[in-house]
Q: What sequence folds into this?
């Protein structure tokens, strides 16, 4: 069989994650040459460089690529992430809840949700079934300095510098056989309406391939400009369309600790991410341009940190929430921003690139005659996951009880909630979420025709299915009960005299061990990775 060739157009995180994963999965980390992989990167287009938070799936990608965790963390200023802490999402009163990566499922039946609802709810729900929220609040690392002896391991992801991550994967991949071409895309040669034959560069190069991967970001130079694949706008359900970002170097603004979690704090017209790395924090205010001006948004972001940031540069990034109407058309696959975008409230920015690369390796077309069938299945899986993320992010907004600004009053309106999510929430008012809820997405009260629910804007007219593949029922319960779902109903149903909320003895034991065995996050980073020690400045004004 003739060797297949893939040309990835565009570098950045999406391009280099795709190149590295395909090389790891299809070429056994470069030890075989089953598929030729080339990446065309413009030397003139700046990357969107912000601090990135990931989810645990990133560890699978790194394992397949073949990188050493500590080497990767040193190269990308990475830190550990064990949870997302949501501040001021329910009320503007400094309240918070955690969405951790590790929880305990009681066997044989998990009644954690229903038991908590029937209690006085004096302890946050996730603290009854996970030690990680308190481990996070104590600022502890998820690993010990020595050999692990705490039973089951804590799950974690990373915070990192996305630009350094791309550079690291570039150097790692090129050393293992990936071809790197630095030049600007000048022209795309087509055969018919859906087959790319070659691309031409401004260096008079003509590059052919069997499969082309579009990683050109929002410009979508191949999938949109040449193949005319449309874009489905989802801004009706997620109103934020802009972010203003800033880096806070530790030599001036070290807060005295490195939080082992991502913080998402609700502000007047959106929310601000706070991502700690080894040398700085990245903050970014994701907001709706309909409800706040650029000047006001920048002021709110700077006020979140407090005084002294006037000399730091702020940068605005506009984005559109939605998805490509088919990530794979002909012999072109869109991965990253060219395929779609959802605001990174649950750190799914890099995840969608990760998933796109993983599914492409799994559905790789070794024969042209299989291309159409594989593309159809790939598009279905990517669409399902996009809508799963859309619903989950949408849920954070529609569950709020805030009425202090026009933005928060708007996001609660029925027309701002997806029909799929409305059906889920209605069903979960009757019974707590459970694993089987994600096997079939038809619930009582929903339309009987798929096309009346939410058709996929492509040849596949079936309704999207939330498989629970990214967030299971435990994660849904975490957000629902963290945001006061059924609070009033429980008060009416069970009355005021409820038993105290219980915590499983295993959680208490886990916390006792954590206090004794887990080092502070900054100490682990300092001793294992060589993170410098910084003088403590002041706690950010917006920290809860």
A:
């Amino acid at each position: 069989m003739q060797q297949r060739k893939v040309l990835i157009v565009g570098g950045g995180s999406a391009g280099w994650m795709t190149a590295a994963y395909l090389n790891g999965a299809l070429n056994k980390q470069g030890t075989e040459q089953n598929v030729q992989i080339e990446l065309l990167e413009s030397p003139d287009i700046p990357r969107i460089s912000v601090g990135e938070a990931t989810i645990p799936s990133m560890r699978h990608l790194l394992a397949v690529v073949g990188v050493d965790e500590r080497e990767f963390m040193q190269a990308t200023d990475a830190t550990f992430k064990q949870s997302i802490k949501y501040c001021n999402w329910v009320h503007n009163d400094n309240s918070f809840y955690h969405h951790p990566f590790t929880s305990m499922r009681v066997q044989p039946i998990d009644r954690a949700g229903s038991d908590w609802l029937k209690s006085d709810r004096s302890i946050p729900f996730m603290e009854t079934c996970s030690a990680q929220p308190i481990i996070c609040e104590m600022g502890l690392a998820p690993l010990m300095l020595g050999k692990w002896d705490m039973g089951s391991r804590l799950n974690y992801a990373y915070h990192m510098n996305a630009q350094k991550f791309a550079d690291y994967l570039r150097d790692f991949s090129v050393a293992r056989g990936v071809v790197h071409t630095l030049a600007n895309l000048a022209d795309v040669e087509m055969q018919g309406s859906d087959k790319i034959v070659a691309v031409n560069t401004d260096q008079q190069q003509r590059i052919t391939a069997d499969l082309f991967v579009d990683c050109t970001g929002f410009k979508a130079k191949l999938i949109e400009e040449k193949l005319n694949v449309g874009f489905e706008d989802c801004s009706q359900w997620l109103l934020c369309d802009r972010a203003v970002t800033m880096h806070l170097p530790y030599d001036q603004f070290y807060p005295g600790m490195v939080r082992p979690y991502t913080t998402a704090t609700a502000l007047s017209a959106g929310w601000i991410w706070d991502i700690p790395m080894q040398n700085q924090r990245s903050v970014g205010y994701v907001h709706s341009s309909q409800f706040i001006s650029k000047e006001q948004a920048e002021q709110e972001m700077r006020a979140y940190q407090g005084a002294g940031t006037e000399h730091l540069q702020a940068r605005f990034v506009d984005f559109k929430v939605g998805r490509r109407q088919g990530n794979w058309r002909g012999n072109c696959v869109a991965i990253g921003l060219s395929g779609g975008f959802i605001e990174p409230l649950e750190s799914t920015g890099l995840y969608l690139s990760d998933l796109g690369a993983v599914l492409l390796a799994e559905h790789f077309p070794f024969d042209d005659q299989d291309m159409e069938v594989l593309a159809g299945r790939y598009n279905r899986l990517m669409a399902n996951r996009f809508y799963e993320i859309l619903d989950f992010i949408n849920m954070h907004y529609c569950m709020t009880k805030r009425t202090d600004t026009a933005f928060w009053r708007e996001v609660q309106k029925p027309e701002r909630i997806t029909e799929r999510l409305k059906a889920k929430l209605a069903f979960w008012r009757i019974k707590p979420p459970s694993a089987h809820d994600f096997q079939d997405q038809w619930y009582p009260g929903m339309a009987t025709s798929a096309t009346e629910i939410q058709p996929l804007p492509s040849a596949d007219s079936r309704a999207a299915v939330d498989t629970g593949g990214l967030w299971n029922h435990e994660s849904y319960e975490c957000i629902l009960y963290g945001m006061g779902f059924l609070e009033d109903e429980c008060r009416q149903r069970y009355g005021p005299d409820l038993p105290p909320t219980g915590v499983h003895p295993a959680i208490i034991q886990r916390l006792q061990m954590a206090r004794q065995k887990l080092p502070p996050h900054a100490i682990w980073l300092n001793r294992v990775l060589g993170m410098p020690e910084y003088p403590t400045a002041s706690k950010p004004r917006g920290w809860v």
